[in-house]
Amino acid sequence: MYTESSARNNNTNNNIVPEERVNKLLLQSIDTLEEILKNQQLPAQERATVALKILEMTGILSQTNPRSPSRLISDAQQQINRLNTDNSTIKFSLNSPKIAQVKSTFLPAAHVEIPNFLSPEENQKAIEIAIQKRDQYIESTTTTKADKYRQSYVLFSQYFPELAALIQSKILETLAEVLAKLNFRPFEISEIEAQLTAHNNGCYYKIHNDAGSEKTASREVTYVYYFYQEPKAFSGGELRIYDTELKAGGAITHENFQTITPANNSIIFFNSRCRHEVMPVVCPSKAFEHSRFTVNGWIRRLVS
């Protein structure tokens, strides 16, 4: 028997079925978008757009205002259509999201070495200053504060101003030639940093680069001036410079490397973004005056 009550029940059931269908469709679409959002290779702007779509589609499910099944389906279809038209940079299928291509830059393990950088008298004076300042050195650290990543002793340039100024002036005299050999275009210099470093028995510096943080990003060229008492009383302490790949804001160390053995009164230059390390030093006497000394630092580009 047909009654008003049964008619109301039938209308209600007709409303429930399509609403369940569209809710299921929305949930499946949201699950797919969430998988795409997990893809760290997508640029931040594209991931933000995907996140916005998830919020919009979730809004359809969470709205409390009563809507008809036809309106639910219409809204859901509009949201799905907008995924394909709103942002032309996002192209994906439900089963196979596209992975964004990330460009990389390859840096060979190149360096420039200049022997007899200072006069014999200047070289001897540098050795005397390095030894005389023994009590003013501090233990070295890294910008990342990593534990047991570096062991050496450092003296900052304000404690050896004359030697620092001498090294810096000599660098400026030869810099144009060095930049050309390293395939650098000339750039405006903001600063030539300098520090005096002593490596004694057991000292080292693990693989790193010198321009890998916000504070060091303007470093373009690293230099290392080697000096020590002769006859040399230590072994080891070689510098290894690795082929380096810059990709997605990071630096990848390749297997190929060049090894530079410290030579008294020589200086080397290389790209500050190249990964490199100082091999462990062996100094049997452990006497400070027998250390592997360097004046090392970085040539910074002027940033406007």
Shape: elongated
Oligomer: single chain
**Could you give the count of β-strands?**
16
Give the averaged pLDDT, no decimals. 82
Count of discrete alpha- or pi-helical segments spanning 4 or more residues: 5
Structure, described:
- By secondary structure, this protein is of the alpha+beta class.
- The chain has helices at 4-37, 44-62, 69-85, 120-132, 161-181, and strands at 104-107, 112-114, 138-139, 150-151, 153-156, 189-192, 195-199, 204-208, 219-227, 235-236, 239-247, 250-260, 266-271, 276-278, 281-282, 292-301.
- Strands 2, 3, 5, 6, 7, 9, 13 and 16 form an eight-stranded antiparallel β-sheet that branches. Strands 1, 4, 8, 11, 12 and 14 form a six-stranded antiparallel β-sheet that branches. The chain has a two-stranded antiparallel sheet with strand order 10-15.
- It starts with a helix and ends with a strand.
- 25% of the residues are buried.
- The model is unreliable at 1-17 and 87-96 (pLDDT under 50).
What's the arrangement of secondary structure elements?
Layout: H1 4-37, H2 44-62, H3 69-85, E1 104-107, E2 112-114, H4 120-132, E3 138-139, E4 150-151, E5 153-156, H5 161-181, E6 189-192, E7 195-199, E8 204-208, E9 219-227, E10 235-236, E11 239-247, E12 250-260, E13 266-271, E14 276-278, E15 281-282, E16 292-301
Antiparallel strand pairs: 1-11, 2-13, 3-5, 4-8, 5-7, 6-16, 7-16, 8-14, 9-13, 9-16, 10-15, 11-12, 11-14
Helix pairs in contact: 1-2, 1-3, 2-3
Structure, briefly:
Helices cover 34% and strands 27% of the residues.
Q: What distinguishing features does this structure have?
A:
34% helix; 304 residues; alpha+beta
